[in-house]
Write a structure and sequence with these properties.
mainly alpha, 14 helices, about 0% strand
Length: about 300
């Protein structure tokens, strides 16, 4: 059973790129490619799994920038150059909470999650368990061979609203905003971009169940704190304003933790007071490790 899944999912990887320019069916593996390309600011369309001209063009641009043959196909060398978002292919491993990669992006696409960022965080875990219960599978939140086989046969049941086709700012514009405000506050742009990717996948329209929204997923209380204490002024509720608030708050956390990125990121995720009182929770440690790993890839 598992060997069959690997063959089915792996073989579908590059085929859709040959279909650019003509009617192409959605291929879940292509969604993984689109997420990786979006992280590098090269793909600005919807994560739809369709390898149309925009996906092929973005792939060729990525390949040229990394000294690869610009054939528009996401082969092994191209995926390796994409770092953590370029591997592994869907079906090559079991997925669990805390994992990060191409296959997690595909999983999120198949489940029609609003945030497709390649990170198997709490919201993805909840969605997987709900989907597993719906299909009568063991609801353990682990996407093993049985769950992968069901998904590979396209019997998945979307458990979240499909991403709306909104007119949003492109990832390229978002990256520019992240880099500009990082420079303004003297922050490492790689760290800021890695954090933003972990939070939203550069999606300005994302709102969590707890009310956090935007590129940096700012909670209403954090926004108020930034305006009244850190900035002393109101900030427009725009994508750029969201990044402004997020970088100002990250700058604050780095300052109070004396430049320690691990503790600053932990406080971002867990809360400053909780970090000082309890240290880093296991879930927080996973989040911090993933952001640091993304930073190393210079997204």
């Amino acid at each position: 059973m598992r060997l069959r899944v690997l063959l089915v999912t792996g073989a579908l990887l590059v085929a859709p790129l040959f279909l650019a320019g003509r009617a192409a069916a959605a291929n879940p593996q292509t969604a993984g490619l689109q997420v990786a390309l979006r992280a590098y600011g090269l793909y600005t369309g919807q994560i739809d799994g369709i390898a149309g001209p925009a996906t092929a063009k973005a792939t060729r641009t990525f390949q040229r920038r990394h000294g690869l043959a610009p054939d528009g196909l996401a082969g092994k060398k191209t995926r390796a150059a994409m770092g953590v978002l370029g591997r592994p292919l869907f079906g090559r491993r079991a997925m669990k909470r805390g994992d990060f990669g191409w296959d997690v992006s595909v999983l999120q696409y198949l489940l029609r999650l609003p945030a497709i960022d390649g990170y198997y965080g709490p919201e993805t875990a909840v969605a997987v368990q709900k989907w597993q219960r719906k299909l009568g599978l063991a609801a353990d939140g682990i996407v093993g061979s049985q769950s992968i086989a069901v998904l590979a046969r396209r019997r998945s049941v979307p458990i979240a609203r499909p991403e709306r086709n909104l007119a949003v700012e492109s990832p390229t514009t978002v990256r520019g905003s992240l880099e500009r405000w990082a420079s303004h506050y003297g922050l490492d742009a790689r760290l800021v971009k890695a954090l933003a990717w972990m939070e939203s996948g550069y999606n300005p329209n994302l709102t969590s169940r707890t009310g956090a929204w935007g590129v940096m997923q700012i909670q209403p209380t954090t926004w108020d704190y930034a305006e009244t204490v850190l900035l002393g002024q109101q900030v427009p509720r725009t994508a750029d304003g969201n990044v402004h608030v997020g970088t100002a708050y990250l700058h604050h956390l780095l300052r109070v933790f004396h430049g320690n990125e691990h503790y600053a990121l932990a406080a971002w995720y867990q809360g400053e007071r909780a970090v000082r009182k309890h240290g880093l929770y296991a879930e927080t440690q996973t989040f911090v490790a993933d952001v640091i790993a993304l930073k190393a890839r210079s997204l």
